[in-house]
Amino acid sequence: VFDQLEALAEGSSPFRGRLAVDRIGVIGGSLGGSAGIAACRTDRRCRAVANLDGGLWGAAATDGAPVPTLLVASDHSPCDELAADGEEAGAYCRAVEAQFARGWARAAEAGQPGSWLAILGSRHAGFSDAPFLAEGVDVYAPLVAGQTIAPERLWRVTSDLLLAFFDRALRGAPAPLLDAPSPAYPEVVFVDPAAAVDAVR
User: Fold this and answer.
1) Which end of the chain is more exposed for a tag (fewer CB within 10 A), N or C?
2) Pick from 173, 149, 192, 178: which is nearest to 23 by CA?
3) Is 26 strand, coil or helix?
4) Do the bridges between strand 69-73 and strand 114-119 make them parallel or antiparallel, or are there none, so unpaired?
């Protein structure tokens, strides 16, 4: 993708001279969040990366990326539900949750800067278009089961966080929304990475 953007910016396409290829940011959701951090870890054309509730794997989890990094988590742990299925399922879930926390803590630490936020009332698939499609579409309903934040509000909060993040990382604009809790966004919680890791040990 980076190569194609550069080719479009330099070639004879209508995009020639119109793409700021020195200010590329990457957004990924779920597994795409891990892929985004992995890409930005190795390709310096990436100047910032945002991960929407994606578990991190491989080098993305152990090394993070040396660029501004925004981590936005959903407000849900399936461990309590899986624990009802037996001790083995609960233990597996806790191990996965611990791996998730360690990977996110490392990514937040490696980011320059790194921020870890959570949105109260959200679920993993809430960052996709699934909440807007769930009504009357049975296959989507389980993906957002238990979500208490309205889809429109989650979309608004997520969009504002992403805009503030990329404006700061790629344009040098101030981003007070990422610096401290805001009464205008009571759903947004600032997560302490060390505390999050300790909580799942």
Assistant:
1) C
2) 173
3) strand
4) parallel
Q: Count the Cβ atoms, other than its own, within 10 Å of residue 59.
A: 14
Cα angle 108-180-178, degrees, rounded to a multiple of 5: 55
pTM, full prediction? 0.90
Alpha-carbon distance of 89 to 83, in angstroms, equals 6
6 φ, ψ (degrees, to nearest 5): -65, -40
pLDDT at 83: 58
The tokens describing 57, both together, are: 């794997």
* Cβ-contact 147, 155 below 8 angstroms: no
Sequence-ordered strand ranges (E) for 86-132: 114-119
Q: Is 85 helix (H, G, I), strand (E, B) or coil?
A: coil
User: Could you tell me which of 13, 46, 45, 136 has the C-alpha nearest to residue 37?
Assistant: 46
Residue for token digits 């302490």?
Answer: 192
Q: Which residues pair with 188 in a beta bridge?
A: 119
Q: Locate tokens 């742990």: which residue?
A: 77
Q: Rounded to an integer, what distance in angstroms lies between the CA atom of residue 153 and that of residue 150?
A: 5
pLDDT per position as a tens digit, 5-27: 999 998 888 999 899 999 999 99
Q: Which helix (H) or strand (E) holds 171?
A: helix 151-171
Q: Are 122 and 147 in contact (CB under 8 A)?
A: yes
Nearest CA to 50 out of 143, 144, 192, 159 is that of: 159
Beta bridge pairs of residue 59 = none
